[in-house]
From TrEMBL:
This is Cytochrome b5. Pfam families: Cyt-b5. It is a single-pass membrane protein. It comes from the Eukaryota. Residues 5-81 form the Cytochrome b5 heme-binding domain. It is found in: Endoplasmic reticulum membrane; Microsome membrane.
Length: 130
């Protein structure tokens, strides 16, 4: 990674929000993924939905592999000046961060509920058959 990397202001990065001109912010770094859009295994739509904001949560939430992370330097173009990122877009993934942890625990609750509903359906089917 070049030591003299460029630093962008959030609004300039956010302008690149089209399939043919697409930049994303992940962990404070800016990636120009325009040339990758067509090849992205998750499709171009999901990346497009992560533009104009901090895409860190979306990226991490998709559970990317180490191989995916190894591809990233290819698209790296610089850093985002964190002071220019609107507070509502700031994603702090550090342990104990309440916004991130509450989003994660909300998702865990949904998973547990889905699991319980599935068990109940199995139970009902079994009860009806018995
Ligand atoms: C530089 C940026 C990115 C790179 C290099 C990248 C790369 C990849 C790669 C290689 C995969 C295949 C599975 C894997 O190896 O993990 C993948 C899957 C996926 N990516 Fe990305 N990705 C990027 C950004 C994003 C963003 C911003 C999102 C937003 C949500 C996203 C969403 C997904 C999803 C949902 C999948 C799963 C597709 C499936 O399993 O059907 N990716 N990505």
């Amino acid at each position: 990674m070049a030591p003299n990397h460029k630093t962008f202001v959030f609004n300039d990065v956010a302008k690149h929000n089209k399939t043919k001109d697409c930049w994303v912010i992940i962990h404070g770094k800016v990636y120009d993924v325009t040339s990758f859009m067509e090849d992205h295994p998750g499709g171009s739509e999901v990346i497009l939905a992560s533009t104009g904001k901090d895409g860190t949560f979306d990226f991490e939430n998709a559970g990317h592999s180490d191989e995916a992370r190894e591809l990233m330097p290819k698209y790296y173009i610089g850093e985002v000046d964190q002071s220019t990122v609107p507070a509502k877009h700031l994603v702090d993934m550090s342990a104990g961060n309440t916004a991130y942890t509450s989003e994660m625990s909300r998702q865990n609750v949904i998973r547990i509920l889905q699991f319980m509903v599935a068990i109940m359906i199995f139970g009902l089917v079994y009860a009806v058959k018995a």
